[in-house]
Structure formats: C-alpha cells, structure tokens
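Reopening this ticket.

The earlier resolution said the output was attached, but the attachment link was broken on my side. Pasting everything inline this time so it's all in one place.
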Amino acid sequence: MPRSLCPLILLLLALLPAALPAQDPATAHRVIARYAALGFEHYERATEKAEDLERAVETFLLDPSAVSETRAREAWTEAFRAYCATEAFRFSGNPIDAAANGPEPMLNAWPVNGKVVETIVVDTRRFPELTTELLQKAHAPAKAQVTTGFHVIEYFLFGPRPNAEGPGAEPFADFTRASPSGPRRAAYLRLAAELLVDQLRYVTDQWRPGSQDNYATALLRMEEPEALRRILLGMAALSGTALAEDRLPSQPAALMSAIADTSGRDFLTNAVGVHIVYRGGFDEEIGPGIYDLLVAAGEGGLAEKLDARMQRSVALLARIPKPYSAAASAEPGSPGAEANQAAIANLKAQAIELAEAGQRLGVENLAAPAESVQ
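Inline output:
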C-alpha cells in the first residue's frame, strides 16, 4: 500500500474484515438476521451523525463565524460519510428506496441547481414562508430541481460550485443580517438539516429490532431465497451500476459531493460498506455473512475469490490520485484515468461474481436495475 495514503483511508482499510477462526456453519437465517442487525447499526450511526450536523448548523447560524462554519462543514463531511456507509443496503427493497415514499431521492440527490435554490431564498412573493413541506414539494430531481438533502446543505456550507483546488467556501457573512438574504438563507439551511434528520430517523426505525411492523421484521419473516436475493442485489447494484456505471465515470461538475471535494473518499466508503455486508461485519464483530454461507455450501473457492475482489476494489479506489475530480477529467491513458478505469473494471467484475454467488446459493433474478441509479 503506498505510504502516501491518508490516515482516513488507512482507517477504512483497517475496517475490512479479516480472516477469523472457523465458527459454526452459517445458515441462511443467521446471515439474514446479521444483515438486519448491521442495517440498523449503519442507519442508526448515520442518523446520529446527521443529528450532530443539525446541531453544528444551529451553532453556526446562531453565531456565524469562520470557526463555526468550519465546524459545520466538518460535521457535514462526517455525516455524509456515515450515510455513504449505508448504501450497500440500498437497491434491495429497503424502505429508503420505496417507490411510493422512499426518502432516498430527498437525502442524496445531486447535482444542485443553484438557480432553483436561490430563487426559493430570494423570491418572497412566490415563497413567502419557508417550511419543510415547501422544500419537499419543490424537490424534483428528474427536473433538475434538488431543493433538500445532503447536497443542498453542502451547497450552503461549501459554496455554489466545485473548486479545482479543494473544497469550496461559502462566506459565513452570507448567513448574517448584514446580507439582504441572510435570514432567509439561514432559515433554509436550518430546515434542510431538520428534514435530513427526520428522514434518516424514519429509515432507522424501519430497521430497528423488536418492532412488530417494520422492514427488519418483514425481512426476517421473508422466504429465505428472497431475503438473500435482496442482500446480494444491494451489493451488486452498488458495485456494478451505481459506482462503476454512474458515479466513477461522471464529469467533475456532476460528481457526488463535488463541492465538498469528498467524492473519492465517499466512493471508497461505499466499497468498504459492500465488503462489510459481504462478510457480515468488521473488526471483531464479523459474520456470518454471504461469505460464510458460500463456505458452508461448499463454495469456499468462490467465497475467497469474491473476498479478494472486494479488497482489490477498495485498494484500487484508494490509489486513485487526489483530488478525485482531477482523475475524473484526466486524459485517457494518464495515471489518473488509468487508475479510475481499473477501479471501474474491478467493480463490474465484482458485480458479476456476486451474481454467480447468488446462482451457487440457489438465488435467481440478480440482474441490477436497468435504470440509472445514483
């Protein structure tokens, strides 16, 4: 591993599951139960970090300064990293993606059209009162109208556009009464943070153990092949569709978290999250996961092959030169472009091998969603 890897990347790599002494053979029920517990742990942590962000935003708005704004930006970075770790549970029937009321499009839609946001801020005739209901009603990502979620908060805290030299910077004075739009801008930011927390609490409650009527309970009562299909589909769709087809090939202006300049780290967190789901945990709290189920089914070779593949995905993403926006726009054949393409190819192979794992376990219909997914 290159010595230049930053401490954060080394920490993420340290979270990758390590080989442990043999345990009791895994069963589908144990794997599904462990997955449900991991889902709750991940969403609970994401909610806690979002609550930290809401408090940091409130502190900043009560006393806008360079210091309080920096702390709010740091809180955003930590909150979004925690959310990225949950994404291996997406694309699988999880309530976050539910067609009717799933909150994911309001949590993580991008890019933000600054003209739409600024119109809501300054047009007091059309929008006399800012409310969470207004932000939700105006939100239409398919029409390039992103009005709430992590990336609107990013827009307010880091500025309106990416900076080729690093994270953007929004002048803190824009949120004071010295600015004509300061009070409205502050109200909008406060509401966006509040809505973010409310939506993550909803998802966390859907994974909370012990409830008689939530997603976690439904998952545990589900036919085992269908529950396993959902686990595998979430990992395969994030690897082969979201990361390899949508996120990594994006142009700099369209990158996820481009303004905060955390794209590369966020993709790395996605990949670590997939490996954690595959192994059923990390560090000392590991398994059983799909890896163990493959071993129990006599498919130890494939289990090890997929494990190595996932570790390679993480390593390849970690080697992409920083900032990620430069690699995304690098000339074909350059070191940045080659590193990015190597990660993309490995993630696509990872998705294919996850489908193969499903077949070996008797799970069918693992094709990733045909539509583009963020």
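Reporter confirms the inline version is readable. The radius of gyration is 21 Å. Residues 1-5, 18-22, 368-374 have pLDDT under 50 and may be disordered.
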